[in-house]
Specification:
Elements lengths: L17 H7 L7 H21 L3 H16 L7 H8 L2 H9 L37 E10 L9 E6 L20 E5 L5 E7 L4 E2 L5 H8 L5 E2 L2 E7 L6 E6 L21 E5 L2 H6 L7 E5 L2 E3 L2
Parallel strand pairs: 1-10, 1-11
Antiparallel strand pairs: 1-4, 2-3, 2-7, 5-6, 7-8, 9-10
Helix pairs in contact: 1-2
Bound molecules: benzoic acid (BEZ) and fe (iii) ion.
Amino acid sequence: MMHTKMTVDDGYFVEERSAETVIARMRDCDDPRLKEIMAVVTRKLHEAVKEIEPTEEEWMKAIHFLTEVGQICNEWRQEWILFSDILGVSMLVDAINHRKPSGASESTVLGPFHVADAPEMPMGSNICLDGKGEDMVVTGRILDTEGVPVAGARIDVWQANDEGFYDVQQKGIQPDFNLRGVFVTGEDGHYWFRAAKPKYYPIPDDGPVGRLLRAMGRHPYRPAHLHYIVSAESFTTLVTHIFDPDDPYIRSDAVFGVKESLLANFDRVEDREKAQELGFAGDWFWSVNHDFVLAR
Ligand code: BEZ
Ligand code: FE
């Protein structure tokens, strides 16, 4: 009997129609979304392999890399998210899921250093508990897209210190909940607190993702930023940062989290009297101002 090449799927593997054969095998899948996702992933993956034409050694290297990414994960370390972050995929998923009405503040990645139970503090509190770093006062308003102040908005902030470390990375060195706080706006929608100017820092780079970054000729740094989660009843919760526009890494964030609208004003204020009024020991301080606009 002659074995002729068939154009319809016969279940046999042929390089030219490799993806189609794999996709056709899902004919009994009763989850349409899973079927769609796996068809796209299969098609794109086969396309990539056909373009790359990896050697078997290269393919095993990729398998070992992915194995290590999984192995280094624990309760505190999520290497898969880091992998997604450095490929810009986390920011893309965020963008797709948080398309905002015009005028609303833009979102960015949450990152691994948020702590759920940071203390609520009176407006104006100093969240820098160890007195290290350059004094900074942060002010702004929470508004709706019409410019009306939002009362009762909850502002959860966290940031790295003047050496680029979060408290959770330096347990026993920094006080617990250093440079974290929750503030609730009054009728005027204003918020303000005191802190210390954050510094740029590397994402956790002692694992396979850090090695990959170096191999790709990339650095692991994120420009200095303050994290915010802003929430209020009947508004969409905003997960975002504000950035220091003068940071050396502002245009090369390792995780692509910077958007132009998230650049804040970091002004150096040389005013001894004002510094004293704010309870700062020096005769100058950083003043940061940024308003957030929530979408309904
Ligand atoms: C952060 O900003 O805390 C962060 C975000 C993504 C990866 C690592 C750190
Ligand atoms: Fe951060």
